[in-house]
Specification:
Elements: E1 19-25, E2 28-29, E3 33-35, H1 47-51, E4 54-56, E5 59-63, E6 69-72, H2 74-87, H3 95-108, E7 121-130, E8 143-152, E9 163-168, H4 185-200, E10 205-209, E11 217-220, E12 223-229, E13 232-235, H5 245-256, E14 260-263, E15 276-281, E16 285-294, E17 299-302, H6 311-325, E18 335-338
Parallel strand pairs: 9-10, 9-16, 13-14
Antiparallel strand pairs: 1-2, 1-3, 1-8, 4-7, 5-6, 5-7, 6-18, 7-8, 10-11, 11-12, 12-13, 12-15, 15-16, 16-17
Bound molecules: pyridoxal-5'-phosphate and 2-OXO-4-methylpentanoic acid (COI).
Length: 339
């Protein structure tokens, strides 16, 4: 294999040796299959293609100093994928198939797990799609669950450096009673124009507002939002944001650091009172936010003037990463080894 430059990896697709697949047919899941083909063969009338019956997940595996590969909170990803399946009427993937797929795909692609200390990790991408044909708007009778892996570096090219974001006033990502709380492809399709425009304007991402009133912060493209003030970690409570496993974990880490935690609506005006702000997610880990621009009013909310992250975001980031790589003891039961 060509030598990968682990320290310089972007967040992108790298071909690995194998992926794993499992089909749901006649009301039951079949055996896990191993493939070295990057393509799938799909019926031209598959519901995934026409009606968006598609859900994906994202989780990471980390190489520890001890040479052991650690998985972070896979049960939460399995649970969220089941919720996504229920949300768009797909067959649910049982936990035993989910973890068997993880173990197999990592074991077969061990040489792609980035070394300890490189800052990179192995990103796992589980995917569930309606593979059976329908022409009327109906759920499929057949499903395909697959998982591939790719070694990745930071999601935002800045890494752990403050990024600029803009408030999104032109587009909604998810409807108030829609599918924003589950991880289905349609939400991401709906965000593409917004993110494209934000990138063109020089922003790392857009911050979506609540679709109903346009008064509250929802989330930041592919990551949840948090703000910090008065020793308190504050993160939005909304039906139309994805319940982030990273955010859930940061809430617990923040409490251990002696911070208070509030999960509640955050009005746009409150942005001016935060001392620090950030975006969090598996891919993004923590991306400190240095500045948020509201292009409709010309107002800017600035959290970093020196190009560095704030002290609390830095602590949160370090602790989370230390747990994930095994540098800090896993007192929560978040880590499982891949053997
Ligand atoms: N919000 C959205 C829209 C996402 O796509 C993601 C990524 O999965 C997150 C938040 C962060 O969630 P997690 O921390 O579980 O990766
Ligand atoms: C993740 O953080 O795992 C994501 O899924 C974000 C994005 C790449 C969609």
């Amino acid at each position: 294999m060509e030598q990968l430059n682990w320290g310089e990896l972007p967040f992108g697709y790298v071909k690995t040796d194998y992926n794993v697949r499992c089909y749901y047919r006649n009301g039951q899941w079949g055996e896990l299959e191993v493939s070295s083909d990057e393509n799938i063969s799909l019926h031209i009338a598959a519901t995934a293609l026409h009606y968006g019956q598609e859900s994906f997940e994202g989780l990471k595996a980390f190489m520890g100093k001890d040479g052991r590969i650690r998985l972070f909170r896979w049960q939460e990803n399995a649970k969220r994928m089941r919720n996504s399946a229920v949300g768009i009427r797909m067959a649910e993937v049982p936990d035993d198939i989910f973890i068997a797929a993880i173990q197999k795909v990592i074991t077969l692609n061990k040489r792609f797990v980035p070394p300890y200390g490189s800052g990179a990790s192995l990103y796992l991408r589980p995917l569930l799609i309606g593979s059976g044909p329908q022409v009327g708007v109906k759920p499929a009778n057949e499903y395909l669950f697959l998982m591939f892996v790719t070694p990745v570096g930071p999601y935002f090219k800045e890494g752990f450096k403050p990024v600029k974001m803009k408030l999104e006033r032109e587009y909604d990502r998810a409807a108030p009673l829609g599918t924003g709380h589950i991880k289905v492809g349609g939400n991401y399709a709906a965000s593409l124009n917004s993110l494209h425009k934000a990138h063109e304007q020089g922003y790392a991402s857009a911050l979506f507002l609540d679709a109903k009133e346009k008064k509250y912060i929802d989330e930041a493209g592919p990551a949840n939002f948090f703000g910090i003030k008065n020793n308190t970690y504050i993160t939005p409570h909304s039906h139309s944001i994805l319940p982030s496993i990273t955010n859930m974990s940061l809430v617990e880490i923040a409490q251990e650091m002696g911070l208070k935690v509030e999960r509640r609506s955050i009005e746009i005006g409150e942005l001016s009172s935060f001392e620090e702000a950030g975006a969090c997610g598996t891919a993004a880990v923590i991306s400190p936010i240095g500045q948020i621009d509201d292009l409709s009013t010309g107002q800017s909310f600035v959290y970093s003037k020196d190009g560095e992250a704030g002290p609390i975001s830095t602590q949160l980031y370090k602790r989370l990463q230390a747990i994930q790589t095994g540098d800090m003891p896993d007192t929560h039961g978040w880590i499982e080894f891949v053997d």
